[in-house]
Design goal:
Order of helices and strands: HEEH
Largest sheet: 2 strands, antiparallel
Strand order of the largest sheet: 1-2
Number of helices: 2
Shape: globular
Radius of gyration: 14 Å
Structural class: alpha+beta
Distance between the termini: 35 Å
Number of strands: 2
Length: 94
C-alpha cells in the first residue's frame, strides 16, 4: 500500500527473479480473484527489459521460464485473465 506501481514492478522482479528492469510500455489493467479465499486483485502489466542480472527463481517461486506468446500454459497460471493479457500484447506489438 502506498507504493507507486512502477516501484512495485521493479521491486517484485528484483525479489522474485533477481533482475533489475526498465519498464517500457503499459499493457493494461485487469481484475481477478486469487487463491481459495477469493481475494480480489488489481493487476497492472508493462513490458520491460532487463538491465541487470540473470533471471532465476527466488526461494518462494516454483519455476522461472520464458514462453512465446502462443506457448503460455494458461491453465497452469494463477489468473484467468492471462489469455487477455497475451492477446493485448499481441495487439500492441503486431
Amino acid at each position: 500500500e502506498g507504493e507507486h506501481p512502477l516501484d512495485c514492478l521493479r521491486r517484485e522482479l528484483k525479489e522474485e527473479a533477481g533482475v533489475e528492469i526498465e519498464p517500457l510500455s503499459f499493457v493494461g489493467v485487469w481484475t481477478d480473484v486469487y487463491g481459495d479465499r477469493g481475494l480480489a486483485t488489481l493487476n497492472l502489466y508493462w513490458t520491460a527489459r532487463i538491465v541487470n542480472g540473470e533471471p532465476a527463481a527466488a526461494d518462494d517461486v516454483d519455476e522461472f521460464r520464458w514462453f512465446a506468446p502462443e506457448e503460455v500454459p494458461h491453465k497452469d497460471l494463477a489468473f484467468d485473465h492471462l489469455p487477455d493479457v497475451v492477446s493485448a500484447l499481441r495487439d500492441q506489438h503486431a
